[in-house]
Amino acid sequence: MIMKILISLPLVLIILYKLWSYLNKKYFILCLCKRVRALDGSPLESRIYIPPSKTPFGNNFDLLDFTPASVFKFMRDAALQAKGRSYLWYFFGTPMYNIVRAEDAEEVFQSSKLITKNVIYDLLKPLLGEGLLTSTDQKWHSRRKTLTPAFHLSVLQSFLNIFKEECKKLVKILHQNPGEELVLNQLIPQFTLNNMCETVLGIKLDDIEEGFQYRQSIHALEEVMLQRIANPLMYNIVYFYLFGDYRKHVDNLKTALDFSSRIIEERRKLFQHKDDVGKRQRYAMLDTLLAAEAEGQIDHQGICDEVNTFMFAAYDTTSTCLIFSLLMLALREDVQERCFEEVLHLPQDHDEASMLQFNELFYLECVIKESLRMLPSIPVIGRKVTEECVVNGLIMPRNTQINLHIYDIMRDPRHFPDPESFQPDRFLTENTTNRHRFGFVPFSAGKRSCIGQKFAILEMKVLLAAILRSFRILPVTTLQSLTFETGIGLRTQQDVKVKLQLRE
Ligand code: HEM
């Protein structure tokens, strides 16, 4: 008996080894997922870079216990190693296709099927529910259609006054302590959150008691998200409950959701007396949602999801871009002087400036775009393959995650020579004609591109013009002193500071 087993054991082992080899070609067995393959049968390595992993279990254990700063560095190192090619990671249950070139991004941006967001967005769902940013398929289509009119030019025109008022408040604060160091990370988010509360909800945050707690809760929720993003184990709710800041998450979530829900209820009462609304209330985006509710297109939960989505998608992105634009203006005196000369064309009284006049601040817009190119508010966005499909000649199994690394795409030296240098002239019309369509994508592109792009540019121009007009911006922080971090958005470990000097 023992002899029989001893004789047949090598045979069994050979069969098992053959079976393993056969299956492992199609499946990454130790990662419990199907492999990505080239459509034409060529070796995958000839089509895409496959970084070495630390263990036989794919890249699962390469990413544990990371900090937000090391996640940022990990991604930049991966792009560097890939030498301009897109690259592939494997995690348990899912391959992850990382795109760092405009040419590879094109097919994803243009696809009408690849519109479902990936696993990272699940972390946002407790706050955003099934809002425009996180939803997919039919729900997303119908919401996008409902909300598009809320960004029409005529609506932006009415928001311009809100931006100017908030701007006046901020510039008044700046006048109080000229010459002192300004911590932009403290000052600017207050401005953009106030703008959002008024344009989305129709309320002045400074005027209500809970305004301060709301601001605090949004900030705290972001801190917890940052912690979860840096550690894939924290995506698991049980692990997060046991080892993460679960309590902080739940408490602040309640504050933020209760706040917006209450404001919605109040606005609904006003909306139901439409005549009064027309006479006394400014339009807010919430009104578009309440009108859709009256027609049975959306319910209370849907309205809450959309409102929370707008607040979240808009306030941090614009403040990050403003912070980096002000930093770059401080660091580049020549660029700042050119912008200053341009804003002198606006009427002396800022209140008089029209939307057309802000639209004509072409060079200031180039500065904003170059800041977004070098330091995009959202450095990476994600999609999920919901049905096996072919992307860039690669067969992507169902559940493959796709990361579009906007940060790396916009630093491609083929499209932006000398990508590390700040050159707003790249965006002058004559310099953009031959650029790849998907080379500059800070607002994403295609169907799921940012709905608030024009809103954001206008809001940022109004503030930058007001600051440039009154003050000379002097440098304190240097780019080299900053450690960048990847959360949902791009951020820095250190505060970004500048000094302001009153202009004569
Ligand atoms: C500098 C400012 C901004 C930047 C850089 C930015 C960037 C982006 C990006 C990259 C996306 C795509 C996200 C993805 O695919 O996962 C996006 C989507 C979105 N943004 Fe913005 N955004 C900005 C300002 C705003 C503003 C001001 C609003 C609203 C007033 C807004 C509302 C949204 C919404 C609702 C979506 C989801 C759109 C959809 O999927 O249909 N964003 N934004």
TrEMBL record:
It is found in: Endoplasmic reticulum membrane; Microsome membrane. It is a peripheral membrane protein. Its main location: endoplasmic reticulum. Pfam families: p450 (PF00067). Keywords: Endoplasmic reticulum, Heme, Iron, Membrane, Metal-binding, Microsome, Monooxygenase, Oxidoreductase. Gene3D superfamilies: Cytochrome P450. Heme binds at residue 450. The keyword Membrane applies. One of its GO terms (cellular component) is endoplasmic reticulum membrane. One of its GO terms (molecular function) is iron ion binding. Its cofactor is heme. May be involved in the metabolism of insect hormones and in the breakdown of synthetic insecticides. PANTHER family: CYTOCHROME P450 4P1-RELATED, CYTOCHROME P450 FAMILY 4. Belongs to the cytochrome P450 family. This is Uncharacterized protein. The gene is Dana\GF14385.
